[in-house]
Inverse folding.
């Protein structure tokens, strides 16, 4: 795996939101913590180098419960970490990289926030992955009513499509073109606006699993249908309890 170069988000690629990508269970932290100026808690948008040496946009999310996730736009690589937060830092000795292709890799992750900037790295199977991002913020709290709606995403040259709905109580229902049926729930996280815990169950298909992780809501400058997305949407980064598989999705809100 190639090393990630630490780079700042390009001009104009600032996400307008309050919440990744990038999920997991456990860790330490406080649900009722208050986000401070240099707090690592929240949602960040930046860039990271892909495993093949390219660069792509990423969403990074860190919750006060000691969960962190990083979702890569083009490759769909997803890093999920279980750890702890302390003032402006997040540390984890239990991080898993779920590549869009190939095998998972286990390692560690650390990130430090200074003002609106986040810098960090993950060491996964001997490779050091660096990332850098800018905090995305909102003046309003985001509730389940805000994220309620319909979401659709396609990948693998548009041969695979997944569609689902989230209602005002946070209940998930949906399906995909492989015949999978999805259910689940979204729950707000105290002290982290626009960042939610999410569970997703996949049934009646080849991947009958239950996944748990993070959901971030906002306006992310990802490319969608050959244009930069300027609509509100979600990034989901979750992993199966076995730590062998990940469920991830980026979808604008219909």
């Amino acid at each position: 795996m190639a090393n990630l170069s630490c780079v700042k988000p390009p001009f104009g690629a600032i996400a307008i939101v309050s919440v990744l990508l990038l999920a997991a269970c456990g860790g330490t932290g406080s649900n009722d913590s208050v986000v401070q100026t240099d707090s690592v808690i929240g949602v960040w948008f930046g860039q990271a180098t892909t495993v093949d040496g390219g660069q792509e946009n990423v969403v990074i999310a860190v919750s006060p419960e000691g969960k962190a996730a990083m979702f890569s736009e083009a490759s769909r690589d997803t890093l999920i970490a279980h750890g702890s937060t302390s003032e402006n830092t997040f540390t984890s000795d239990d991080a898993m990289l779920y590549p869009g292709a190939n095998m998972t890799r286990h390692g560690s992750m650390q990130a430090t926030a200074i003002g609106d900037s986040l810098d960090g790295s993950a060491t996964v199977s001997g490779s050091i992955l660096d990332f850098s991002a800018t905090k995305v913020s909102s003046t309003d709290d985001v509730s389940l009513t805000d994220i309620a709606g319909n979401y659709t995403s396609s990948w693998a040259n548009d041969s695979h499509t997944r569609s689902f709905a989230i209602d005002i109580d946070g209940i998930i229902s949906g399906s995909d073109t492989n015949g999978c049926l999805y259910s689940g729930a979204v729950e707000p996280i105290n002290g982290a606006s626009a960042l939610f815990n999410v569970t997703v169950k996949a049934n009646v298909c080849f991947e009958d699993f239950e996944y748990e992780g993070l959901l971030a809501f906002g306006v992310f400058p990802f490319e969608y249908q050959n244009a930069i997305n300027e609509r509100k949407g979600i990034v989901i980064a979750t992993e199966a309890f076995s730590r062998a598989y990940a469920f991830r999705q980026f979808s604008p809100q219909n």
Observations:
- Residues 124 and 169 are 37 Å apart (CA to CA).
- The helical segments are 144-147.
